[in-house]
Amino acid sequence: MFESRKQRNAARRAMDAATSYEAWLGAAQELDQLDGLHAWVEDPDSSCYDAAQVRRAIRELRAARLGNEPVKLAELLVQAIDQLGSQITALRLYCETYSGESKRLPRELLGETVLALTYLESEPMEGYPDAVKLALFKQNAHRFGRSALMLSGGATMGIYHLGVVKALFDARLLPTVVCGSSMGAIVAAGVCTRDDEGLREFFERPQHIHREALKRKRVLDVASERSLFDTAKLLEHVRNNVHGDLTFLEAFKKTGRLLNISVSPVHARQKPRILNHITTPDLLITQSAVASCAMPFLYPPAMLMARDASGATVPYLPEERWLDGSVAGDLPMARVSRLHNVNHFIVSQTNPHVYLMVSRSETPPLPYIAFETAGSAVRAQARSLLGSARKYVHNEHLRPALDQVYSLTAQPYLGDINLHPRVDPRMLRKFISNPTIEDIESFILEGQRVTWPKLPMIRDQTLISRTFAEVIARVEARVAGAPARASHGP
Fold first, then answer.
1. Are 296 and 404 in contact (CB under 8 A)?
2. Does pLDDT of 6 surpass 60?
3. Is 153 helix (H, G, I), strand (E, B) or coil?
4. Mean pLDDT for the stretch of residues 235-246
5. pLDDT tens-place string over residues 434-443
């Protein structure tokens, strides 16, 4: 008994001290073994799904594939995805083990699904030339949906996002759709203006990250401009960390990643915007990220800039100014969903005011449940009072501030998979400050550590959509007569 406890404690310490996923996973799997959780993994039964139905789906898919019956296989595949998709990747299945692994049976069905899709893509089928296959794959991929990574605001705390992105990138699980607000917009811009090789080099040399974003204004300027920090210094910071002064469309063509930046309007006549290669293809990413960071009292509202047909930089809607994206849309999931057919959201949340409202555990303790319930009631009451006040307050100075406070209470802050860093109180003291290289490395490592336990769930919940993307890329390449573009596949 004593020896077993000693081994468990050593494994826990190894998990907490791990600086790589391999080291962390080895310690987590040792804990699973010591606690006998491998028996739970191998046990096929679960309240989340019907084990007999899952076995039958596996048998039928395998028989149709091995029996060379592509039409039947396609029908079975659609049924399996529709009937079992959400059951075999249910959240509860990833909360039992330290390593985050689910049961073996549903993972076997996921594997058979990948084999079926690959078979249908590669095998010749009478009456189904590549052009027809491509249309069918695209139709079903659209029906199934895909995932997006949402990066919240959080000032200096938003550097944690870099660790989340690194963990996903290293595991080949980084979504193509990335959306950021405020500090999350800078990280998203840095990610989506680099191809895979560029991202790899970026993470190998964190000491080259530009860290000087905050420069205080002179006292007289603070009073006259009603903002504490210099926007020119912030723009310099963004330009040094974003790879090239690109437009949204140029970045998309270069990397294939779908960058989205959230900005909030100053004037009530405008609505919050999602800036991307569809809605604003010619806008410059650097100035868009600066606008998304323009937190009231810290930075003044910013103008968006675009590149015109001659290549000149010109104002976009010159009469308008824009604020921090977190004010009205920290996680603009509804708009991202409509624009990119996203129905699954991985959220990296680093806003301190949100941290107290959410639990880092999928099975929170009872004191937290009571705290969260009381907090929900308070937020609902505040939202109701602010909503009523907005009906009667029309003062041109008070109404914008009231709208901004209401937005902070009304918007969603969580997604399907939520990643929250363990906040070190020493880091909270640096919430609005320029980080040191030691701070950067600490933020990145902590972002990785909170992501590692969720990698199996992210892997399984995104497997089908990632496979669709890979299959479509290969068929498109055959139709076009060109080699398929390399990407992060299953």
1. yes
2. yes
3. coil
4. 94
5. 899 999 999 9
d(CA 316, CA 319): 9
Helix (H) or strand (E) segment spanning residue 296: none
The maximal CA–CA distance of the chain, rounded, in angstroms, is: 80
Q: How far apart are CA 323 and CA 4, in angstroms?
A: 55
Give the other-Cβ count within 10 Å of 183's Cβ: 29
Q: Are 185 and 261 in contact (CB under 8 A)?
A: yes
Please state, rounded to an integer, the average pLDDT across all residues of the chain.
Answer: 86
pLDDT at 86: 82
Provide the pLDDT confidence category of residue 366 given band limits of 50, 70 and 90. very low
In three state form, how does the secondary structure of 96-134 look?
Answer: CCCCCCCCHHHHHHHHHHHHHHHHHHHCCCCCCCHHHHH
Task: Assess contact for 139 and 296: CB atoms under 8 A.
Answer: no
- CA distances for 418 relative to 174, 254, 345, 405, angstroms: 15, 29, 8, 24
pTM: 0.86
What span, in angstroms and rounded, lies between the C-alpha atoms of 163 and 448?
A: 5
pLDDT tens digit string along 474-483? 999 999 885 5
Residue partners of 88: CB distance under 8 A and separation at least 6: 48, 49, 54, 102, 106, 109, 110, 460
Q: Tell me, what's the pLDDT at 393?
A: 56
Listed range (226-235, 251-260, 479-488) with the worst mean pLDDT: 479-488
For 376-394, the pLDDT digits (tens) are 555 555 555 655 555 555 5
Pairing type for strands 304-307 and 177-181 reads: unpaired
Secondary structure (3-state) at 343: strand
CA-nearest of 98, 180, 148 to 462 is 148
Contact 129, 67 (CB under 8 A): no
* Cα angle value 66/76/465 (rounded, 5°): 100
Cα 238 off chain centre by: 20
Helix (H, G, I), strand (E, B) or coil at 305: strand
Integer Cα distance of 16 and 176 in angstroms: 30
Beta bridge partners, 342, equal 146
* Amino acid present at 170: D
Q: What does the DSSP 8-state code read for residue 244? A: S
